[in-house]
Amino acid sequence: MEDSNSLEILESEMESMDLRIQESSNQVELDSVSVPEKEVITDDDWRDAINKVVPAVVVLQTTACRSFDTELPSSGSATGFVVDKDRGIILTNRHVVKPANGHLGLLPEKEAFADDWAETVNKVAPGVVILQITTCRAFDTELPSSGSATGFVVDKQRGIILTNRHVVDPGPVNAQAIFASNEEIPVRPIYRDPVHDFGFFSYDPGAIRFLNYEEIPLAPEAASVGLEIRVIGNDSSEKVVDFFLVSKSLSVLYSGDKLYLLQVSILSGILARLDRNAPTYKKDGYNDFNTFYLQAASGTKPGSSGSPVVDKKGRAVALNAGGSSSSSSAFYLPLERVVRALRLLQKCRDTHANKWETVSVPRGTLQVKFRHKGFDKTRRLGLRSETEQMVRHASLLGEIGMLVVDSVVPGGPAYGQLEPGDMLVCVDGEVTTRFLRLETLLDDNVDQKIGLQIERGGISLTVNLVVQDLHTITPNHFLEVSGSVIHPLSYQQATNFSIQCGLVYVAEPGYMLQRSGVPCHAIIKKFSGVEISQLEELISVFSKLSRGARVPLEYIRHNDRHRSKSVIVCIDRHEWYDAPKIYTRDDSSGLWIARPAIQPKILQLSCCSSDVEQRPKIQSFSLFGESTLAKHMHQSTKLELTNGDVRIEDSNRHISKEAHSKEEYDAKTKECQEQGHFSSNEIVTSSCSSHEIGEIKLKDQSTTEKTLLIGIEAATSTSTSFVESLIEPALVMLKVDVPPSCFVDGVKSVASSGTGVIVHHSQSMGLVAIDKNTVEISACDVMLSFAAFPIQIPGEVVFVHPVYNFALLAYDPSALGADGATMVHAAELFPEPALCRGDSVYLVGLGTNLRAQSRKSTVTNPCLALYVDQDDRPRYGATNMEVIELDSDFGSEFTGVLCDKRGKARAIWGSFSDQDYQFVRGIPIYMISQIVNSIICGGNGSSLLINGVKRGMPLIRTLEVSLSPILLSEARNFGLSNDWIQALDEKDPVRRQVLCVEGCYAGSKAENILKQSDMLLAVNKELITCFHDIENACQALEECGDNDGKLKITIFRQGCEVDLLVGTDVRDGNGTTRAINWCGCLVQDSHPAVRSLGFLPEEGYGVYVTKWSLGSPADRYSLTAVKWIVHVNGKPTPDLDAFANVVKELGPDECVRVKTVDLDGKPQVQTLKQDLHYWPTWELRFDPDTAMWRKNTINVLDSIHG
Predict the structure, then answer these.
(1) How many CB atoms lie within 10 A of CB 411?
(2) CA 1200 to mean position of chain CA atoms
(3) Secondary structure, 3-state, 199-217
(4) Would 117-239+260-351 and 1072-1195 be classified into the same CATH topology?
(5) How far is 477 from 490, CA to CA, in rounded Å?
(6) CA distance from start to end of the chain
(7) How many CA atoms does the CB half-sphere of 236 hold within 13 Å?
(8) How many other CB atoms are found less than 10 A from the CB of residue 134?
(9) Paired strand residues for 346
(10) Between 46 and 383, whose confidence is greater?
(11) 197, 235, 781, 1014: which one is catalytic?
(12) Hey, what CATH topology would domain 477-596 get?
């Protein structure tokens, strides 16, 4: 249940009984006769059988000498047993024998556990249960997770199970208990102690029908040094009984007329200490304190937290809690306070007519952490000898120390009164040297004053303090907004951090806070200019903000509390998550009940605020926080902007010197023409863009020309700086954030950044081109920072090319203001003629200060065919695409634009991803200019709302086939005729290649027509040698209005020329626009990267699982990603509509059968149970009419809104 890297892991240590070596070697007989159903088997029978069998069991020391079949070279140990003593035959597993040569060494196995403990184990083990725990939300010290632990029945009649506090969890939890009869029943938390590591689950005793078991009595008084103990518990949730593993023992239970094999681990040990200080587990996680712990030597096994520590009489003398990862020590919690809490629970249950209500377990605190220190250490702290003598005389015989103040929580009852190093002498006149007595006094005096006598540096002091109710500083509610979990700082974390309780604490930053750089464990101090000290104040500020607002937030970190940090928080513009909710713990039901954190009327008014009213606020905050945002950008960003500052002052000085408007650019071009840089017939403008109505004009052209001359004189000192001055007004730095709720299409990165190029800028719309490695999907938030004007504004993804590695984003030019709109202009696109090898180009991008950086380079390969292999999780990889290589660049993270000497854009310099690394190449501008022109002039696809105007978007006709080029010389070896080789060589003497089919996209019209290794020779009798030829042929079909959509392709297949009619597919640039979250897994239609593998399930394709969430039912039942769901409860789910119709009818407690198919085509049937309370089924869908992503609930429990 805890981090394995912690100093002392929250899991008990498991070790079986030693097995005594037998001198004789008996033979185990293989017998197929089954045990009669009603036969009575006694413990003596089993002891005789075990003692007879064990000597024939051997330990096998194996060494696999070579790699062979499924095995690699290795050495290790395993188990076998003798099945033929005369011939010397041992039976073991196939993977132990190995398919290749190996060496075996034999060691005899040990004897089973001692006979005198068998009766105790058989009596206790049925009351021990395996707990399957799912922590549904981050809260306090815990993070979302799924795992297993141990508990045991302490009240059979009322149905109460005891386990650890870190198992019950302080926050929302979903849990099931598995009894020895393999009966699984739900359990719910009824109490978890605020400090000590114990808690209780309740269950329905009537649900256990096939097992006779008894509750395990609690006997804390029986614990003593030297007591022999056994710890019986779950061993890593392993369900396979393996008697011969040293870490396990097998117990046999005869219950009624049924025989059970108890799948438990048994730890043997002897109590060594009863007064160990509580172990320290994590600096920022759960730690117990103000109690002694018991200690014994043992090994460690995960999953055994909450196991009973029993004596030979079958009584629990302690609760297994933790262990040391560096030494063989186990730590057990004493049970005195557990017994008190259990009695109060039982009394509460009896009082409320056998119904569980909120239980009142009085707990008092001074917000002081004590540690027990020996008299040798207290003397060094200044303890007077007469005080020591008095304490020794008044305390129990053998007392060796006192309680010393270790830390005091700021703002608590003892703050300013007690100090670290103070030695506690008396409480209300009673000498108190033990935690148990101190806890009793505090719990019995809640909200009352007590007197403490202490010694501080040899001076006796008396202080009177009010005992605080510990439950009032233990949070029982939290705010969930945009995936963030925020609640009052708990006493646990306040003690860890030495920070005042109740402050606004970020348990999980989620999406909104994480994208702003707010970390986990942050304490929010100010939000939107308002001081924040309570959660209610934060909610009040939230209620006044509208979607898309950008406001400052100030926070501190627990490990850097003296320096506050400021960031800009962007309120979600899209409905990535539910509206803010408050979850409150309901102890009567064991659930956390949700209610709206903000009244709907307030939200509606905020959302209806006009853009005009909100825009000044957005602009002012962008100036305030631009440099701060760059400093605290999330670590997973891809460019050096993450570590740099955006200098507003530098940008302003830059603006005063250089010209940035479209007219200035044209004037500069004219001036350069007059100076002989290039001729008039070389000036090319992108079609449609310069003629669009509403192009931005400068008011004072003479002033512009004057400013231009100054800029030209400064810029022409070198050709590089001249190109920079021409293209810099068209450069934009993009910061892209993908909400974790929208990780579709195999997206890996939460955040990324890169340099984009403005390819269109008018009064009504601006368009920016960027590579798809930066903007991979349309479900994201994008912020644009302009090189020409210091401002940040949002952008929206309007087109994601289905084949090529680029996307287009739109922004609202009016958001730049009058000055910004005139300083920003679009790059002049120059698609033809294409770049050739040896051409000189200028690579221009933006540095961390948003100033242009450039380098003159030479094209080494203008038509490099790119083919990116898919990794284990399919995502976009560039295929059927030719890119540009340069002789030098700025490294694999620098993106931008390739310009000629006149500042015209010839390509964008984009980022590509291949497996676990990324690289950069040039993307020819013709690929982009065609789409830009289509959007400006109106495409033939569906309409999309862009800046309040509906525009027809382009459709892309494509041959959905993965192609790769092979050299003509290699094609000859495959049998391609000399005539074809000569014809292809004459057609394209530069490439000298032929395109070969790597595979067809599953579900495409080319599937089952073209086959792998087919060589494409001609389309419609026209020779083809590159991807551009295929694209032109598809475009010709679109232009001629051929509804058939088929290409006449001549191929070479297995020595023969074949003419085929191959269908093409039409795709839009919307990308994935719909996904469903069910049981914490995100499902979608199969995206192109998946279909490019050439396989879809035969059973109606199915819906593709692209992501799963920690702490969800998918996590609990291992419904992982990268597979298809083809059936739910036997009903086919070929697409999202069918899937939604099936899952919305499922009940909350219904056991669901899910049939899945993985990428290798292997089917599997899994089962799970929904958790509609914490994980409702919802859909995320893009609405093109409003250009908004909206979240709709499909199936949810009514109680979630209670």
Answers:
(1) 15
(2) 24
(3) EEEECCHHHCCCCCCCCCC
(4) no
(5) 11
(6) 30
(7) 12
(8) 25
(9) none
(10) 383
(11) 197
(12) Pdz3 Domain (2.30.42)
Checking if the pLDDT of 976 tops 80, the result is yes
Are 6 and 325 in contact by the 8 Å Cβ rule? The answer is: yes
The answer to whether residue 32 scores a pLDDT higher than 90 is: no
Classify 117-239+260-351 by CATH class.
mainly beta
Three-state secondary structure call for residue 313: coil
Spell out the domain ranges in the chain.
117-239+260-351, 364-469, 477-596, 725-946, 956-1067, 1072-1195
* Per-residue pLDDT tens digits for 271-325: 999 999 998 888 889 999 999 999 987 655 666 889 999 999 999 999 999 887 6
DSSP 1086: P
In contact, 1178 and 1194? CB cutoff 8 Å: yes
| Lookup: tokens for 509 | 């930053």
Exactly one of 148, 265, 304, 1004 is catalytic; which is it? Answer: 304
Q: Verify whether residue 166 is a known catalytic residue.
A: yes
pLDDT band (50, 70, 90) for residue 440: very high
What gap in Å lies between CA 11 and CA 1, rounded to an integer?
7
- Judged on CB neighbours under 10 Å (0-12, 13-18, 19+), 200 is buried
pTM of the shown model: 0.82
659 alpha-carbon distance from chain centroid: 45
Helix axes 701-715, 648-657, angle to 10 degrees: 110
DSSP 55: G
CA-CA distance, 1202 to 1198, in Å (whole number)? 7
Topology classification of domain 956-1067: Pdz3 Domain (2.30.42)
* Of 981, 975, 997, residue with least CA distance to 1056: 975
pLDDT band at 601 (very low <50, low <70, confident <90, very high): low
Q: Give the separation between CA 573 and CA 290, rounded to whole angstroms.
A: 47
Nearest alpha-carbon partner for 538 in 479, 483, 472: 479
Residue 926's H or E segment, with its range, is: helix 926-937
Burial class (CB in 10 A: 0-12, 13-18, 19+), 228: middle
> What CA–CA distance (Å, rounded) separates 830 from 858?
17
H helix runs in 352-405, sequence order: 375-380, 385-394
Is the separation of the CB atoms in 910 and 904 below 8 Å? no
Extract the tokens encoding 104: 């075996």
CA dihedral in degrees (960, 964, 968, 969; nearest 10)?
-150
Q: In what order do the strands lie in the sheet with 273-277?
A: 265-270, 228-233, 308-310, 316-323, 329-333, 292-297, 273-277
Q: Which one from 12, 140, 145, 166 is the annotated catalytic residue?
A: 166
Compute the distance between CA of residue 418 and CA of residue 677 in angstroms, rounded to an integer: 81
CATH superfamily of 364-469: PDZ domain (2.30.42.10)
Give residue-wise pLDDT tens across range 1143-1158.
999 988 788 999 999 9
The residue type at 246:
V
Looking at CATH, the fold of the domain delimited by 1072-1195 is given as Pdz3 Domain (2.30.42)
d(CA 927, CA 921): 14
d(CA 148, CA 144): 13
Residues in the chain: 1202
Choice between 602 and 365, residue whose per-residue pLDDT is larger? 365
Q: Three-state SS for 177? A: strand
| Structural class in CATH, domain 725-946 | mainly beta
Tens of pLDDT, residues 205-220: 999 999 999 999 999 9
Could you tell me which residues come within 8 angstroms of residue 620 by beta carbon, excluding any fewer than 6 positions away? none
How far, rounded to the nearest angstrom, does the alpha carbon of residue 790 sit from its chain's CA centroid?
A: 34
Q: Is the pLDDT of residue 673 over 80?
A: no
Top-confidence range, 272-276, 810-814, 1038-1042: 810-814
Is residue 1031 classed as helix, strand or coil in its secondary structure?
Answer: helix
Q: Give DSSP secondary structure letters for 105-140.
A: EEEEPPP-S-GGGHHHHHHHGGGEEEEEEEE-S-BT
Higher-pLDDT residue of 835 and 698 is 835
Q: Is residue 197 flagged as an active site residue?
A: yes
